[in-house]
Each structure stands twice: as structure tokens, then as C-alpha cells.
Amino acid sequence: MILENSCLRADVRAEAGATIASLRHLASGVEMLAQLPWDPVAAPTHAAPDELSWLARWTGGWPPLFPNGGDAGLHAGVHHGFHGEASVATWTATRDGKALVLARRFLTVPARMTRRLTLDGPCLTLDAEVEADAPCEVIWGEHVTLGGALLDGPVTLATSATRAVASADYAPPESPLVPGAESPWPCLPGRTGTVDLSHPQSGWSLLAGLFELGPAPFVEVTREGGPTVRIEWTADPWPLAWLWIETGGDRNVPWFGRGRALGVEPSTTWPPTGLARATRAGGRLLQLRPGEPGRARLSLLVT
User: Fold this and answer.
1) Taking the alpha carbons of 84, 266, 272, 249 in that order, is the dihedral positive or negative?
2) Each residue of 230-278: pLDDT tens digit?
3) Against a cut of 0.85, is the pTM above it?
4) pLDDT (tens digit, 9 = 90+) per residue, 149-186?
5) Cα(89)–Cα(15) distance, rounded to whole angstroms?
């Protein structure tokens, strides 16, 4: 389904995890979201058994991560797929005036979610609400993955975060970071020297966490000589964000060094290893209870 005004055109795939597959800035013609170089498998499911199965269904854009984020695994007696049911399952989609409303009642947790997308000039806003029928623990995140022509040239990152932490679990040879290292933003200890995350370089494949974002979290990505994308979100329920940078470093299937993507992923939970492993590592999970709906807002502004 298409959501469009005079500034932006969003292509939303309800049948593919409610993913915002494309977001184009009409004045410049610039695509803001990652468009990855393989053809998707058109086979909705409620649980991708592993990362490759998930990637086969996702070729870029912005899906929700719920009720899991990261690795597949068993939690509370239920097997949760990679990045969670919400990101790969089919949603219902309806129009409400100028808004697009997506909804799903989940199989893997006793909960339902409504996602309301609206455009206001050059700003796309998501208002989401999740309600539980019985108590449950979840990871909830938004897999906002920038790319397209936005990453055609050098970019600069700015953020309200004051601390960054390298993932201790995602450490491929192409990651320049020391696994588990932490430091004030924007620099982290690297394998061959200090790494400045505010200026991504070609050939990276890394995952880090952004912390201490304050009451009004944001990340801003500016292409040299081009547009700026500013992502803002509510600190409740997303007090942190995953920062994923893939600039041609990953040479494994299905990337083969071809992908360019920059993920700004507000989340409830660190580490980004899925419900089962995050729990064992002491990660905070979102507790859902009947009668206490969780609400969140995220906006993406193009200037």
C-alpha cells in the first residue's frame, strides 16, 4: 500500500512484516531506506528459524521487531524466530483518513499491536500500541534501516547518545570494533585504533548500542551535499538503540560485499541477541500486562 503526500512516498508491505519497504523524498528523488541486492522469498511465516531465513524475506526497509529481536531461541517455552513474528508475518491494513493502520494479533505471545502511519510534510510518524491478554515478556524494537541514495556519499551521524557499546556477540572480521568495548560517543576502541562511529567508512560490518540518549532520543544522518534524516522516538519504551552499519564489509551469503545499510534501531533491550540469550545476560525485557497498553512514537524527518 502507498502512503503519499507532496513531500514523501512510502511503500508499505502489510504482507511482509508490515515493512516500510521504500521511503522516497519526492523533491530530490532520493530513496531513504536500504534496498538490498537480492530478490525476496514471498513466503510469510511467523518464525524465521535463523538469520539467513529472515534475510531471504527482507530486502531492506523498516519492519518492526516484536516479540523478539536478534537470535531465534526458546523463551518461556515458546520458540521465537529471528527478529520476531512481527517482522515476517502478514498484517491487516486499513485506511483511516490519511493514515494507514496496520494490526496483528500474535501467535507467539498473547498480545496484539496496532501501528498507525501518517505523513505531515517531510515527516513520517509511527504511533504504535501493544496490548497484552496475559502477562508476557518481549523485546520490542524498530528496524529502521537507512540506505538507498542516502548512502551514495559520505555521511555523518549525530545523536543525543553520550555512550556507545560495541556488541560482544557480533564480531565478524570486517568489524573494526573491539568486541564489548564501550566509550563516550562517538569513538570506540578498535582493533587497529580508535573508531569514529560518527563517520562510517566503507568496508565496515558492525553492531553497537547507543545509550544515555536522554528524554528526547534522536539520531541524525546527513549525506555530504545531500539530505538529512532525523529519527526521533519516545524514550519509553525505547531507552536505547542498536546501531548497525553495513558498508560492504559482510562477504557472506547473501551479502557478498554488496550491501549498504545503516540501521538506527530503537529498542527495549541490550544485548541484541534475542529473548533467550539477552535474558541470560541480564538484559532488560519489556513486561506486558493486561490493561496496561504500551505506547510508542517514532518520527522520521527528511530535510
Assistant:
1) positive
2) 999 999 999 999 999 999 999 999 999 998 999 999 999 999 999 999 9
3) yes
4) 999 989 999 999 999 999 999 999 999 999 999 999 99
5) 7
Specify whether the CB–CB gap between 30 and 41 falls below 8 A: no
What structural domains does the chain harbor? 2-302 (2.70.98.10)
